[in-house]
## 1
Amino acid sequence: MTTANARTMKFGGYHRRRSVREDTELTHVGPGTPGGEYLRRFWHPIALSSELGELPLAIRILDEELVLFRDGGGRVGLLHLRCSHRNTSLEYGFIQQHGIRCCYHGWHYDVDGTILETPGEPPRSRIKDKLCHGAYPTREYGGLVFAYMGPPEETPEFPVYDSWVHPEGNRLVPYKIHNPCNWLQSHENGADPIHTCFLHARGNELQFSEQYTALPTLSFFETPIGLLSLGTRRWDDYLWVRASDVILPNAAQFGLAEVASEEKFALCAWVSRWIVPIDNTNAYAIGLRHFNPVIDPHGTGDAEAIGLGKVDFPGQVAAPSHEEGQRNPGDFEAQVAQGPVTVHANETRGVTDEGVIMTRRQIRKGIRAVKRGQPLDWPSRAGGDLLPTYNIELVSRVPRKPGADDDATVRRFGRRVAEIVIESGGLPPGARQETAKSRIDAMIAAEFS
Ligand code: FES
Ligand SMILES: [Fe+2]
């Protein structure tokens, strides 16, 4: 029996043995693993600021046990969970004005890992001068706590996305959801625009607007921060470009509030979302939902439905029951059901998976660069500039032309929009939006009317 025969044999389940070999280079996240080392070169959101209360929070991130707390001075500490003395969990520590004190023998740690006191030891003890407890730097933004868990000498600038501050008055609402599967399969969802037509629209309950039932034309473009994942659809007289940022290594931005039957130009985001590994088989989907009238002109968002374990769009958490999940599966069911760590060797990828393939290729390239000790190809925004991002929701009135190949029109339209948006990345927010809009308007007038 040749392999080819076995693969095409009807009732040939016996011959189709599934591989159990994970793509560990991409999926494993612990200290010292290639993927884990790569991910440790970036800032990641790890918790909601609102989770920090009177008691320390034990958390696992990138397969490391950690304790997170806000001390009496308001500073956030992220320390190795186990006390440097004899390993008691600092989850049971007492938060101090400065840092945290272990419950067992009173060792006192500052947020940078400095051992301030070893009170049971004799005064002449030099332990605290010879040792620092494991600690990581943190930053808070938009109600999220971010951490950098890589080598201190390689700490990157904290990237503030332009979409967080544009348009003026944009309001950010944070959320955090537990996904019980490997981080990469959840992250790849952002580079997979075709699923929106099937999982969210056809053959399922309509989870967003009816325009999602239209089959999108797909295209993918590299950007300085990752890739732009485009689904362009025809809906009557309108063309709708839904272009999502897939941002290295584990972030994405996308839109949701579109109805695609009225004109819209939103070079900004509905949500910025990271998939942050807890360990190899669990991750947090942590995000900032954006509230502004440009991305959501009809005010469909619901800030009250966003927070710990919840967000205001369907399918992001487990359905209320297994049966309901089977009847109306969402992103959560689809991703978790790929398995704890989906095995790439068992996939049969088609042309619609190009975004997933590009995402893996970009991440693998970064992993190997770190392994070789090379710097990552990442745009520097020295001086605290905003990081340009590329998410766009565009709906334009472009009626079909009699006799013309409309599929080709749809494809070309998406490509031209993406080119203009990516080229606009060098302009400051505000001016950037105006320039991109006038260029797209001129392009439509010249090429599509
Ligand atoms: S185990 Fe923490 S002070 Fe002894
Ligand atoms: Fe989805």
## 2
Amino acid sequence: MPESGVRRVILPARYVQGSGVLSQLGSHVRQYGTRPFVVAGRTSFSKVKARVQASLLAAGVPVVAYDDSVGECTMAKINEIAARADELDVDVVVGCGGGKAVDTAKAVAEKLHVPAITVPTQCATNADGMADAVIFTEDHRFVQDLYLSRAPVLVLVDTDVVARAPPQYLVQGMGDALASAFEKPAYAASQRMKKAADQATEAALEVNLRCFSVLMAHGLQAKKDVEAGKVTDSVEAVVEAIKLMSGFGFGGGGCAAAHAVHNGLTIIPGIARKHGEIVAYGVLVQMVLEKRQMGEIERVMRWCKSLGLPTRLRDLGEIDRGQLLAAAEKACDPTDSMSSMPFAVTPRMVLEAIEEVERLGTALS
Ligand SMILES: [Zn+2]
């Protein structure tokens, strides 16, 4: 192994985003197979089912079968769908829906050794272009991050579809994407220090910076536009930041303190927020841990507040001091991504950083 390690990214071969592009699905699918199988969640699929089927039929590659029963992305569900699709001689898998549906579809495609295509119906996740599937139990307990040999061959994002999902999804996606600009540089620095086998690419670091500036410039406008039912340039820019840029930026590893803080906080039963919202709070904690300039922290905090992302503990839910201590300890678990920070972080440091965020958040409100 050379001392400089290996730089590696796994990317989708094609990314198509725009208003109404769902009608192009069939002509894209036809380039990869003739027997498409659709994997979806029931509610999300009901909104696009007619258009998906019509586009595939018009292109001469009608749906062989579909499974819209994905609730959680579990190994049992992946195996069950893969067995059925295998019997049907499926040669391309289309995942349609949120993170759980597309993750299930990608894992099914991997099992069958056929290409995966993802068609997101909302923006809470950047899972669509990633070469992994996050596996849960039936009752939503994390099992593993299953690494796949390749990313989907196509990510098709119809902005008319994703902009019609509840606006909170877009905000959650922005919260998660925000983390890429902070966690990836921290991860990259720690990998360099460790002379680790896997090193971040310059390209990913650069894309993350651009992702951050797009979120800062267009985030609030995009939320307002989606609330008003409009697909504007700001909406397009933010959707790209979430779906393409943050996926590219995180690809190949890249979580650090923000996701570790999320993983710690989610052991508390009273936490009432979603993944991207808690991660955004974790970004604020990471910024304090990194001793970033106060003006920089306040800028991100104001942005979070303007979007309705949590900036104080009370925004996250019911938390007592004992639970907070347990969460800080969990965040520093050696198997978690806190170990990707370029300096050692203790539970005490996490608690102090949370207290500092609390102080700043209260002063801002
Ligand atoms: Zn995340």
## 3
Amino acid sequence: MTGGNDPAPLAGKFIVLAVTGGISSYKSIDLARQLALEGAEVQTILTQNALQFVRPLPFQILTGRTPIERMFPIEGGKHPGEMPHISLTHQADQTVIAPATADSIAKFARGDGDDFLSTLLLSAKAPVIIAPAMNPRMWSSPAVQDNIRLLRSRGHLVIEPGVGRMARPEEGEGRGRMPEPAEILTEIHRLLLPRPDLAGYRLVISAGPTRERWDAVRYLSNRSSGKMGYAIAITALARGAKVTLVSGPSSLPDPAGVNTIRVESAEEMRIAMLDAWKNADAAIMAAAVADYRPSKTIDEKKKKNSGPITIELEPTVDILVEMGNSKGSRILTGFAAETDNLIENALEKLRRKGLDFIVANIVAGNEDAMGANASRAIIIDESGTAEELPLLEKSQLAGKILDRIAKMWQKDT
Ligand SMILES: Cc1cc2nc3c(=O)[nH]c(=O)nc-3n(C[C@H](O)[C@H](O)[C@H](O)COP(=O)(O)O)c2cc1C
């Protein structure tokens, strides 16, 4: 998980970043920079041996705090009498050791208290995030592996070091590279940020109109813009879901991060939806799928005659009914766009199609939802209970629909 669109997801979080003496200590400057950019307050600790590899100045400038380098004289406290090796662990939302040398790991496992960092770790809250970095032969040594096991058994989070070229080319490749700052940041997010409510769920959403071809240039369609389905897809993505959007012809761009499948006819939408439904936890049918299509299509352009013509229409296959056949305990919901008898018509549709709930909206008059940016909807569930919503932006309505789905999943867990 990442911080999403929030520019400062770690605002208000206090992070203790301990840097120990290894060749990859320089990477921690970038980690400090990213943490500060995300709004975190960062207190760096540099071991005496880390000072052989990096200078305090970049950390000081990037974090706005002077790094602590030693136990005595007392550094880093704000008040007289403060003991930073204890007070910092009270304040810290997260303690991170990056890179963690074999030596610092051994000291932590043993419970040493002979320098500032080891003493601070004695009172640090688990999980401390440990990002080891060392030569592969050091990493695979029984002593290091025993220490790692011990620290994990105490609830600390040891990120597996990466595989790659070692500091010196003649050392070849192996496991021991410091995990990248982005990976460490992801773990910090995972521990500190609230998990979005739709994380881990797969949603399939349909949107837009369909086009039912009649001749080489003409088709039957409707006024749907796709705005409702796209708004649901974008909102679901922001709430952590994995989203597939099956879209009929729409001028809206493919939303970044959403698996968008473009289709044209009701039949193409049916095939794409049934395929996506196989691997989904919920489906929301927001597309205005044609109920009828021309029985016959003409390859060439129909010439104009003076007299009237008749186009025979045949019904299309009902996608929701077919999806309902393999529903199981998954959530299936759709929209009812009606010009009259909104609640009765929507309830009849919900029962006939076996939906969990239905979103009904009026598509006539001055509150016509089709193509508009806002919609006044009524959400009706299986029991017939109707929740009347005020006129809402489609992104707000998307939020209300997803709240219902999230609540149903919360009940199941
Ligand atoms: C050039 C050089 C590079 C080193 N790189 C690492 C390393 O990547 N990982 C490691 O565990 N130790 C490394 N060491 C050894 C540590 O610096 C040494 O164990 C030291 O005592 C660690 O102190 P600290 O854990 O208090 O920072 C390196 C030593 C030298 C001379």
## 4
Amino acid sequence: MGEKMDAGVPDAAAIAKAHAVYTPAALRFYDLAVHGLSNRFAWRCPASRLVELYAQGLSANHLEAGVGTGLFLDRAGTGFDRLVLADINVHCLDLAGRRLARFRPALRQANLLAPLEFDLAPFTSVGLTYVLHCLPGTMSEKLVAVDHLKPFMAEGARLFGATILGRGVVPNIAARGLLDLYNKKGVFNNGADGIEALTDGLRQRFATVRIEQDGLVALFTAR
Ligand SMILES: C[S@@+](CC[C@H](N)C(=O)[O-])C[C@H]1O[C@@H](n2cnc3c(N)ncnc32)[C@H](O)[C@@H]1O
């Protein structure tokens, strides 16, 4: 586990560690390292499964929270009336903004663990992929990010995404090594993340929740 939060107050150092790794140099290898190799051989959930989740979940009025390199929007996006990319890390916003320029995205730098001060009308879909396992805290503390996104969801809007679980799973040698390394460095904070806590937390917040597990990855859709 990474650093803890004190009585629900996000720890600035732990929040920084969870995204500081995404430098311009690191982002050049991100798609291959994470979605090419780790997804298939460590997390055992091929990127194609996540592309499928996006193809089904995306709407024309979409907010992507924790955009990274923008791979899934690039692969699954067909067109948007409005696309907003939010991330705490400016390098991610720069890269994804350029990659997705054909969709004319708006960019917002924001920490999902703090209330979002966006002057934006509600969205009909929100993507949150591979962000929860990075965020520090317990599952209920991480899901505060969802509470911050909810005011930007229109009635009936869909939240979808995925997260790598660290509890109640059987990692292979590659996954065990990566989980230990990333949690030690504070890039991941998922040692206590189990599918039950994720399911319960989403059910407390949404009327309809669908969760599937593929390898170590929980894929969710909630409305
Ligand atoms: C593992 S990457 C996932 C990127 C992308 N969604 C994907 O699946 O490839 C985690 C992303 O969440 C962002 N992130 C981490 N902590 C955050 C926070 N507190 N608020 C907003 N974004 C955050 C990182 O900068 C990064 O873009």
